[in-house]
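Example S7 (C-alpha cells).
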C-alpha cells in the first residue's frame, strides 16, 4: 500500500526497549518453534488518525545446523508484521531487522511486542536487541 508523501507531523512518544549493554553476547535467549517475547513497548494516548513507526534489530546465532528465525511485531495479540531469516550452518551469526508502519493502531494505550521463533532448527538471540516505536501525529 502506498500512502501520501510529504510532511505528516511531529514524532512523539519515542519509545525504546534494548539490552544494556546492547552488544553481541549481551543475551542468550533460546529460540525454538514456541514464540518468545524479546522486547515490549507501549504508546499512550494514541488518537484517531495517528500512525506508529516501529523498528528493531536482533542479533542471533543458529545452534542446530540449518535454521530459520522469524521475527514478528504484535499489536496486543495480533501479528501485524513478520519476516524470516535463514542461516545455513551451526554457529552462524545473523542480524535480522524489522521496519513497519502501523497505519491503524487504534486509540488509547497501544502495546507492541517484538517476538522471535524458529520455523526450522533452533537458535539463540545473542544481542544486540533493540525495539523502538514512535507516534507520528498529523
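Recovered sequence:
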Amino acid at each position: 500500500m502506498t500512502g501520501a508523501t510529504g510532511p505528516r507531523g511531529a514524532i512523539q512518544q519515542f519509545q525504546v526497549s534494548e539490552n544494556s549493554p546492547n552488544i553481541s553476547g549481551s543475551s542468550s535467549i533460546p529460540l525454538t518453534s514456541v514464540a518468545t517475547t524479546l522486547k515490549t513497548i507501549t504508546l499512550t494516548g494514541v488518537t484517531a488518525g495517528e500512525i506508529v513507526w516501529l523498528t528493531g534489530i536482533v542479533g542471533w546465532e543458529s545452534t542446530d545446523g540449518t535454521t530459520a528465525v522469524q521475527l514478528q511485531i504484535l499489536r496486543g495479540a495480533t501479528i501485524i508484521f513478520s519476516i524470516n531469516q535463514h542461516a545455513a550452518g551451526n554457529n552462524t551469526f545473523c542480524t535480522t531487522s524489522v521496519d513497519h508502519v502501523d497505519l491503524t493502531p487504534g486509540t488509547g494505550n497501544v502495546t507492541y511486542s517484538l517476538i522471535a521463533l524458529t520455523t526450522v532448527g533452533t537458535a539463540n538471540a545473542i544481542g544486540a536487541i533493540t525495539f523502538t516505536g514512535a507516534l507520528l501525529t498529523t
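Notes on this example. The chain has a mean pLDDT of 92.
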